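We modelled the chain as a single entity of 415 amino acids. Its sequence is:
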Amino acid sequence: MRWLFCNSHHTRKKVFFIACQATFEKPWIPAEFGSGSTCHRRFQEWQAFGVFEQVWADQVRTYDQKCGIAWNWQILDSAIIPAPLGGAKTGKNPTDRAKSGSKRHVLVDRRGVPLALTLSGANTPDYQCAEATLFNLVVRRSWRDRLGHLVVRHFCADKGYDYDEVHRVARRLGYRVHIAHRRRRGEPEPPPVTGRRHPARRWVIERTNSWHNRFRALKIRWEKKLRITKRWFILPVRSSPHDFWDRLLDNHPVVSVTWHEAVAYCNWLNKTNPGRAFRLPTEAEWERAARHTDGREYPWEGEFDSEKANTAESKIGRTTAVGLFPRGASECGALDLAGNVWEWCTSLYKEYPYNATDGREDLNGVDTRVLRGGSWFIHSGGARCAVRALLHPHNPYNNFGFRVAESFPALGSAS
């Protein structure tokens, strides 16, 4: 690939970030990069050479190598953005007094990583762009995960896509379709739904849209040329789903993992280390490691101290490397039992007192699982040793991780 602007990898990343935060206006561009008009001209040259599509595809492939694209669930939705200057693929925004706007149609994987994009006018019905988006993946659609296992691909969308043509296209591509039912005229009112029958899926696309709207050039469309608008979307793919890329940071806790993925990792450790028994800690084991025998409020003795844990009080706003808060170690020497990331436990959520024989340690249970410890996103009250969080084991968040425990034979037992 020919880089037209700069040769330094670090500088290219810096230019990409500046491009996402602002249009190429002179006051926003550091002097080291030249004038705004020069930057804009180079940007158009990059576009003509197809640099941005390749950047997007390369980053998604890197994500696939490091984390694995979650092909088993793909979610489609749209977001309307203002387009005050008009241009191609704009229309009257039905949610903003018919002002000019555009609509981004984005397909993401189960964790919210963008896989496809199309643009339309703000007044274009969602279902009319479903086929174009499904056929516009930046990488080749796969039937297998990165371990080579066959996966069943599910397609999820809201009732705005409940049309025969969308169902037909999705099934032709091999998806199992999960689209909310749109009540037609004359249909009786459906009975109320009681309880959650399935884990929530569509929230990840809403989160991805909110990440993209943090960038000035994506929140409002100032460009009249469609191809330029699409390039703005491609640029922040590397930085938008930051929690997935935090997986790659040295010595940081892994985040955005489900309970099932954490258990699978422990099983993998057992297979690659014969004779050892790795697993997630039970809720009681986690609390014992954190509270010691004196029932302390935090893993250390005394009151909360922001110098001892990565919580919202530290204002870091993300995970930190293990060992950055050595003064917050528990009595047994475990680090980050308060803050940094919530930690999955094996235990199902049941009332206390703890009873290991009441079924809460059943690994085949389908109810909510316990998380402990608080995170960088939570204030000190949520990082107390006694706080219990619960969530469905299929749900990943960017402040969820896990800690591995190891079982040893009882003292005095035969080896």
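As a brief sanity check on the tokenised model: The domain at 21-182+200-240 is CATH 3.30.420.10 (Nucleotidyltransferase; domain 5). Residues 1-27, 234-247 have pLDDT under 50 and may be disordered.
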